[in-house]
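User: Can you help me understand a structure? I only have the sequence.
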Amino acid sequence: MTTATAESKADQPAATSFAWHVDTPVGRLAVVEKDGAVARLLWHRDSPGLSEIRETPVLKEAVAQLTAYFDGELTAFDLPLKLSASDFERQVQEAMLAIPHGQTRTYGDIAKDLDTYGQPVGQACGNNSIPIIVPCHRVLSANGLGGFSGEGGVEMKIRLLKHEGGYPFLL
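Assistant: Let's start by predicting it. Here is the structure, written out as tokens:
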């Protein structure tokens, strides 16, 4: 089971961050660890200035799990995660983590569970700093795909959904 902690602004100045890259079928990704937990997942285009490139036990495990996910051997990540500092965004991230591999929910489904509206849920999904691992690609609009803030936009969301078999009429 993935463990999650909140990232507060007070934690940030003393935080130690490291990154490691992994080549995947959806492009080169950079996994960023902060204080022993995965804090970000970036597409290569978003990661040129990473200063500390180091293979730590957490990053080594994250890369191994991402590789297994893309090889079709892993359906649930089990990593320590540093989720958003915002209570609401963290609630949305936890709701996304609860969506099983190969399944989807709508922004409205999550909004109903959190007693809010779909638009703030969509914004929180767009602010997800750990895509794929925190599966924002599994959240759809009531009328279709919705958006995706990762590299490649909606086309990348489709690729991830097809990989999981989570959007059958696209297959």
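Now, to help you interpret it: Residues 28 and 134 are 18 Å apart (CA to CA). The helical segments are 57-70, 87-97, 107-114, 118-126, 153-164. Let me know which part you'd like to focus on.
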